[in-house]
Structure formats: structure tokens, C-alpha cells
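Q: I have 264 residues here and want to know how they pack in 3D. Can you give me a structure?
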Amino acid sequence: MAKKINISIINSIAVEAGKEILKVYHDDDFSKVVDFKADNSPLTLADQASHKVIAPALQQQYPDIPVISEEGKDIAYAVRKDWGYFWLVDPLDGTKEFIKRNGQFTVNIALIHQGAPVAGVIYTPVTGELYFAGKEGYVEDIEPGAYKQLGDGKTTKLEVNHKTDQLIAVRSSSHASEEEEKVLTAYRATENISKGSSLKFCMVAEGKADIYYRHGPTMEWDTAAGQAIVEGAGGAVYQGTSRKSFAYNKESLLNSSFLVIAKQ
């Protein structure tokens, strides 16, 4: 029997984490909040503050579901390989966007079951926009599907576009590649928009874009919540340009390239 969660609880946790992020974001001495990880990628006090909200809250609400978070990721594969369920969390997705101060960063929380995202939440602290989704049998307080809630509480159900030509591609604000150009040309994308963090998934889910291809490296917590939301809206996420499903809880949490697409 599937575990059922209350997506409103997860939304609230994401919003609380967003409040902690904004405290750092609006700090007058912002220049002192950035550090660097061993791989030279940026880490901020906001990442850590968000993690300290999310991980304990999830464990309190759902003590039988373990957590993998970017800021607490060092769990041996031998320990996690048999997990049927777990939370996959990016406390602050889009750290580069955070440092640029363009507002395009998010809090990502996903529920994984048997290697696939079955529910997800993406929250944008600066705008108050909240995206969330759940598959049938896994959420108890919403109808299956994907939704967007604005800061004023207005909520709409999301559905991807089903165009077959003149596709709009959403692309990274911080990453680009020749491979990306080739794929988008092959899919006859005729227009590009730029967006940071997991908001690119959200653009596809709400029909503002039709395709998103990422060639460069990402981690599982970068994509899980976005995949849940895109799939909830009727789209798909594939490995590379294949039609293979994207898998989670691999021995290495590093992702291959992936394709997010609205048309089926």
C-alpha cells in the first residue's frame, strides 16, 4: 500500500525554509554569506538555514521516511539502496542565481518511491510562487495533478502545451552547450526563454515553454521535484534524448543529461 502524504504540510515546510533564505538574501552584508564547497561550487548560509528547517520538519511529520538533502547527502549507498520511500531535497536550488540576486532560486522537495518522483514541491521565495504535484495514491489533500499557487493564495491546475511545432525552449541562465543547441534544433524549437534553477521545469509544466534540455551535470535533488511537477501536468522527463525513464537513488547521485518535454 502506498504511503500518502499531505502536500499542504510539505508546502508549508518549503515556505518556512524560504523565509530563512530571504533573511540571508536581504542581509545588508550579503557579500559575506558565500562560501565554497570542495568542488568549488558556491554554498551560502541560506542553503544551510533552509536545510535546518526542512530536514527536521520532514522527519517530525513523517518519521518513517528518510531524507536525502544536498546539504546532508553523505549517506552510503549500502544504507539507502533498499529504501522504498525517501525525501529528496534541494534546500536552495539556483545558488548562482541567489548570488546574482535575480530572484530565480527555489526550494525543492520531492517524495521518491521505488526510484521515481511521486510528489514534489517547488517554492520561489522572492515571488511567493508555489508549484506542487502528486500522483494518484500518494497525496491525500489534493486531486492528482500539478498546481501553481500565487502569493495571494490563488491556485490553478497546470497542464503542458501539446504543440508539435514552433516549440519554445527554456534554457539555463547560467549554463549552455553545443549539445543543447543540436538537440533544440532537432526538435525544431524556434524561440528561447531564459530561466534559472528548477523554474525551467515549471515553465514547461505551466505551458510557458515546451522543451528543456540539459547536457551539463546535475544531481538528483536538482531534478526530482521538477520532474514530479512536469509529469503531473502531463509532460515527461527522459534520460538524454532517449525515451528511458529518469531513475533516482542510483549509486552515484549524479544525473546524466536529460530532456524535459511537453509533447508525448
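Q: Anything worth noting?
A: The first strand starts at residue 34 and ends at 36. The chain has two domains: 7-157, 167-261.
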